[in-house]
Amino acid sequence: MIDFDAEIEQVLDGPPSRLAFRALCAALLRAGCPERLVSRCEERLASWPDEVREASWSWLAALKAGHSKPTWRLVRSLSPQSVRNGTVDPALPDPRSCAEVRGVTRLDLGWYASEQLEVLAATLDHWENLRSVRISGLTGSDGELVARIAGHEALTRLESLSLVGVDEDMWHFEKPPFSPPEGRAWQLRHVGLRAPDLVNLLNSGRVPNLRSVDVLVCSVQEALDLAARPELARLDRLAIGFRCGKNGRQPLWKPYFGNVIDEDDDAAEAFFARADLTGLRSLVVRGTPMGLGREGLGERGVDAIVAGGVLRRLTELTLELLPVGDAAIARVLEALDAERMEKLTLTDLVATDGTATALAAVGVLPRLRHLDLSRNRLGAEGARQLAAGVRLPALEHLDLSGRESGSPYYARPDIQPVGDAAAEAWACSHNAAELTHLRLAATGLSSDGLAALMTSERLPELGTLDVTCNPVGSWPTALQDAPVWRTVRSLNLADCGLGDADIRSLASTASAPRLHSVSLAYNSVGSQGARALAAWALLPQLWELDLHDNVIGDDGLTDLAMSRAAQRLLELDLEQDCWNPRARDDRKPLPSEVVDPASFPSLDAIFLGMVDEYHGSRYSCGFPTRVREEIVSAPGTRPELIAFLTHLETESFEDDEDDTGPDEDGDLDDHDFRTERAARHAELFDEARDFARRMIEGDIGWPPPKEPTQGTAAGYG
């Protein structure tokens, strides 16, 4: 007999996350949702952040299709935008007719979500518990909707309103103005706005409780106007993006230093020389990506931040996507108060081992819990310096990853060449004693480095290990009882060159009491590997299994489903890309066992069929059109499957019997990244190491000579 009380307590005692919330709801549903258990969960969940109590896209899609569940009463956050290829966003529910969403406190509408914003503008009065609204990618065509919201009395209840984020580039669309009329004070503690709108809001006196701001500054004058506002002294958090100029030049498919925008430097100097930021504890300054480089303020802008004196007061600092390099980063580190720093994020700044040396010179950062140096160019020596040359006794989160590729069919990773040396150094580092989260994605890690981490006794708290996009190539059987299995909760092995034999080795591990999430996406898992997973002793405890774009045949899928072992699985991804040469024939329906509710009884999201990841579209859903329609209309079809099958973009579906895929004449093997994966990783690793060497030697090699007036210089776009 299943002890549902114990299972629910185990989830509640663990770290809060969106996946854990879904697991809790699934356990309640399996228990029949008795009122005593639901009430206990409501009480315990009060201490969880509202943003993790989120109804996933699949829940909203099922709700739109007419399928509710009693656990909706526990939901506090909605994010209706789907990030899956070829899926449709469900409409934002209307709380007047949809009681399930009346407890929601937080809405994240996603990017370019005009339709969702229109629904919100029409129903804002009726979201009685709503406290936070976020939308990204607003354009001039959204002006009328923004104006309606700006004049809405319901804004007096909000604590957070984000209409602009520092992850936006301002290259393509003008932002509509946000001009609320005069009125009584609001409760807002956070806003995300363009600088002129923020200045007007501060000047109105309507936001006396404002403590956190995301703002985009598009000219020196905007910087001066914002800096003049005395209310900035009350802020404890500021995220700022300078978008005062553009360049856009880049070498095609090559790493480069990036584009320093003089106008951004000018605006940064104007702002940080004048702004009163005496209350600030958290600062984010972000540029924009440009190919395999970055664009924004440079050394002069960073020096303005240093000269402004704000860094000594910070407990958190994020600098991201700025073409600055080691020397400027070293000056930043010298200006920090090492005794105060708790979170340090220095990502995509063209940092090399020189930055690690500068961190080592600091000596001790006694309170630093979070260190992110990802998407830079640190090497083996830099990784060793961080592991042994600086004391980080409180460190919990470490990210040394490169830039992952997305779909490996169409993009390439940008390696941070720390290699196995990073894994080996941190496997024996005293700084690893409190680590709960370690990311070494796209770093050139091999099976030797992975083994060093897995067998280390110095990682007694490690819960998340991410080695995505590395030439691991094999999974040693000797790792079956490795120490890290005692604590790991999430293991990401996507695009690591693993095949059936490796999955059998992985599945020889019989005990990992906290493991809940495994990603094996973009590997070469076939039917034998699927059978090994079906028999894995740990499968019954998994909440998430990602098998995206592998090569499993129908026999393997049937065996995985028929094992009836994945009793707690919440999300299963079996999609394949259209260039996978061993993709199943999408004219043939998937085995019925895969979608039988008995196979995966807790499943709340499933993703099937063939997608085109280059165009973000979909060729199939795992079933020909006739079969899909029959499944949707059948009375016994599980709601999660109906949600998926009824929220698809079907225009590109190809289930004609004469259709053989995306290109009958093309050689799919020529497009399969698996054929030369190891050699390609080695080439990219050498390229990254050579780039780092040139940066250290001062051979930036950028910008190139000015392009001629007529045409475009060869090699640049």
UniProtKB/TrEMBL annotation:
<dbReference type="InterPro" id="IPR001611">
    <property type="entry name" value="Leu-rich_rpt"/>
</dbReference>
<dbReference type="InterPro" id="IPR032675">
    <property type="entry name" value="LRR_dom_sf"/>
</dbReference>
<dbReference type="InterPro" id="IPR027038">
    <property type="entry name" value="RanGap"/>
</dbReference>
<dbReference type="Pfam" id="PF13516">
    <property type="entry name" value="LRR_6"/>
</dbReference>
<feature type="region of interest" description="Disordered">
    <location>
        <begin position="651"/>
        <end position="675"/>
    </location>
</feature>
<feature type="compositionally biased region" description="Acidic residues">
    <location>
        <begin position="651"/>
        <end position="670"/>
    </location>
</feature>
<feature type="region of interest" description="Disordered">
    <location>
        <begin position="696"/>
        <end position="717"/>
    </location>
</feature>
<protein>
    <submittedName>
        <fullName>Uncharacterized protein</fullName>
    </submittedName>
</protein>
